[in-house]
Amino acid sequence: MNMLTETAVEKALEQKMNATAYKMVGRTVSVYYGEKRALFDVNLNVRENTVTALIGPSGCGKSTFLRCLNRMNDTIDNCRVTGEIKLDDEDIYDPDIDVVELRARVGMVFQKPNPFPKSIYENISYGPRIHGIARSKADLDQIVESSLHKAGLWNEVKDRLQESGTGLSGGQQQRLCIARAVAVSPEVILMDEPCSALDPIATAKVEELIHELRENYSIVIVTHSMQQAARVSQRTAMFHLGNLVEENDTDKMFTNPDDPRTQDYIMGRFG
Ligand SMILES: Nc1ncnc2c1ncn2[C@@H]1O[C@H](COP(=O)(O)OP(=O)(O)OP(=O)(O)O)[C@@H](O)[C@H]1O
């Protein structure tokens, strides 16, 4: 993309973002693991075409909040979520919601790349097949190719689609997992420390990819790296001891945060 077009795309995205279209809205979200309360009445929204970074010291509840957004906490015994979370205008905790469909709309990429022990092709085609997105082999081929393109992996794997996904390098596996999430046409992508198992070069590639994906998706990323939050996100939310301390424009958050706890954390004074 040339500089001019890139600036135009950035500008258009900025305008979209400033219109404060919320893709997801979280109101008074609390989470309990048995008797233990891990989140306290968190009010946090996910903006469209925006990367939102969740930061804060270990154990502050970042992953717990992330998992609320596609009901991954349902899979944890003893975990109870209260409050309200809406995707567009739909309450995702409504008992009538189809959770499998929800998790296709709100996809997830985990800390450790977790491709299925199947071929690269099958890793990506599985979701579209079970969700009935592809009607023919040609449809599937097209989805596999376009998802790999979107994840910046096509050129590296196009000649080895039938080889196992687990044979790829760690960074390639993570981009495969991103391609797998993208293949079911999600609206939101959740990423839980997606680069923590990657080397700096693979990390840079995934960060670049996150930057590009923002054009089409809303992204929420948990990260321990302040540099990463500053590089990839437009909004940042700071958690501490299960509370949302502050949510702000990333630029402001890293230059002039409203809350002293944010300042302390960013300056490495705790956590
Ligand atoms: N499955 C679980 N069962 C019981 N307690 C849990 C579970 N998962 C998380 N917790 C607790 O909930 C709190 C928040 O944990 P969470 O993993 O959300 O924090 P985090 O900010 O993502 O931490 P980290 O940065 O270390 O990954 C912690 O006190 C943690 O011990």
TrEMBL record:
Q: Where is the ABC transporter domain?
A: 24-266
Of which family is this protein a member?
Belongs to the ABC transporter superfamily.
Task: Provide this UniProt record's keywords sorted from A to Z.
Answer: ATP-binding, Nucleotide-binding, Phosphate transport, Transport
* UniProt record, GO biological process: phosphate ion transmembrane transport
Instruction: List the GO molecular function terms.
Output: ATP binding; ATP hydrolysis activity; phosphate transmembrane transporter activity
Keyword Nucleotide-binding in record: yes
Q: Signal peptide: which range, if any? A: none
Its Gene Ontology cellular component terms are: membrane
ATP-binding as UniProt keyword: yes
Query: Which protein, by its recorded name, is this?
Result: Phosphate transporter ATP-binding protein PstB
UniProt gene name: pstB
Reading the lineage from the top rank, the first entry is Bacteria
Species in which this protein is naturally found: Rhizobium gallicum bv. gallicum R602sp
